[in-house]
TrEMBL record:
<dbReference type="InterPro" id="IPR040079">
    <property type="entry name" value="Glutathione_S-Trfase"/>
</dbReference>
<dbReference type="Pfam" id="PF00043">
    <property type="entry name" value="GST_C"/>
</dbReference>
<dbReference type="InterPro" id="IPR004045">
    <property type="entry name" value="Glutathione_S-Trfase_N"/>
</dbReference>
<dbReference type="InterPro" id="IPR004046">
    <property type="entry name" value="GST_C"/>
</dbReference>
<feature type="domain" description="GST C-terminal">
    <location>
        <begin position="87"/>
        <end position="214"/>
    </location>
</feature>
<dbReference type="InterPro" id="IPR010987">
    <property type="entry name" value="Glutathione-S-Trfase_C-like"/>
</dbReference>
<dbReference type="Pfam" id="PF02798">
    <property type="entry name" value="GST_N"/>
</dbReference>
<dbReference type="GO" id="GO:0004364">
    <property type="term" value="F:glutathione transferase activity"/>
</dbReference>
<dbReference type="GO" id="GO:0005737">
    <property type="term" value="C:cytoplasm"/>
</dbReference>
<dbReference type="InterPro" id="IPR036249">
    <property type="entry name" value="Thioredoxin-like_sf"/>
</dbReference>
<dbReference type="InterPro" id="IPR036282">
    <property type="entry name" value="Glutathione-S-Trfase_C_sf"/>
</dbReference>
<dbReference type="GO" id="GO:0006749">
    <property type="term" value="P:glutathione metabolic process"/>
</dbReference>
<protein>
    <recommendedName>
        <fullName>Probable glutathione S-transferase</fullName>
        <ecNumber>2.5.1.18</ecNumber>
    </recommendedName>
</protein>
<comment type="similarity">
    <text>Belongs to the GST superfamily. HSP26 family.</text>
</comment>
<keyword id="KW-0808">Transferase</keyword>
<dbReference type="InterPro" id="IPR045073">
    <property type="entry name" value="Omega/Tau-like"/>
</dbReference>
<dbReference type="InterPro" id="IPR045074">
    <property type="entry name" value="GST_C_Tau"/>
</dbReference>
């Protein structure tokens, strides 16, 4: 029987993983529909006519698009195993870092991935600066951004797990090194060791092949 919750996704998309992890951490059953992005399904185009992107979450026939919006929706509809702090101030701090990661750090990662030979070092340093700020100001000495357990900030910063690791290999520069970002580096390992995350990560070989192909042939 069809489930009430459906997720349209793509296997290498970090935005899709944010939603997968949130649903799994809350124990929500769902049907997963893998999209062929060069050849999107009619349903995806109907559900997300503005951006035509994944992820799209469909709950009781109603579509929700844009991953941060989807995460907020999941948190509101299924408040158990919370992904945001209860305290309003702490919640605003979490949202501040979610914003910082999706805006500043994510664009720095994209610029790093696409940088030409001459600009690579500068792009790497810009990303390092943002990661250092995140390490010092948001993570501190905690195990996770959420404290002792994973919260929404951890899910968003997960861009700096498999995705940054693959991109560093493709670009040929390492930014997230234990000597320069020791606490963030330890966080990556802690995050990837959490059972729900560990069971739901993209295959590293396939990621490397995929991102190498994208970088050498953007179209
Ligand atoms: N801002 C969107 C970004 C989603 C996004 O970029 N999805 C990509 C896959 S990683 C996509 O669907 N690309 C298809 C396209 O652009 O045609 C979100 O947070 O959900």
């Amino acid at each position: 029987m069809d489930k009430e919750v459906k997720l349209h996704g793509f296997w290498s998309s970090p935005f899709v993983y944010w939603v997968v992890w949130a649903l799994k951490l809350k124990g929500i059953e769902y049907d997963y529909i893998e999209e062929d992005l060069p050849n999107k399904s009619e349903l995806l185009l109907r559900y997300n006519p503005v951006y035509k992107k994944v992820p799209v979450l469909v709950h009781a026939g109603k579509p929700i698009s844009e991953s941060p919006v989807i995460l907020e929706y999941i948190e509101e509809v299924w408040p158990h195993n919370p992904l945001l702090p209860k305290d309003p101030y702490e919640r605003s701090v979490a949202r501040f870092w979610i914003n910082f990661a999706t805006d500043k750090v994510r664009s720095a990662l994209v610029s790093f991935f696409w940088a030409r030979e001459d600009d690579k070092k500068e792009a790497a340093e810009q990303m390092f600066d943002y990661l250092k700020i995140s390490e010092e100001q948001a993570l501190g000495d905690k195990k996770f951004f959420g404290g002792n357990s994973i919260n929404m900030v951890d899910l968003i910063f997960a861009l700096f797990t498999c995705w940054i690791q693959t991109m560093q290999q493709v670009v040929g520069i390492k930014v997230l090194e234990p000597s320069r970002l020791p606490r963030l580096h330890a966080w990556v390992n802690n995050f990837k060791e959490e059972p729900i995350i560990k069971e739901n990560l993209p295959d590293t070989e396939r990621m490397l092949e995929h991102y190498t192909r994208i970088r050498s042939n953007p179209n």
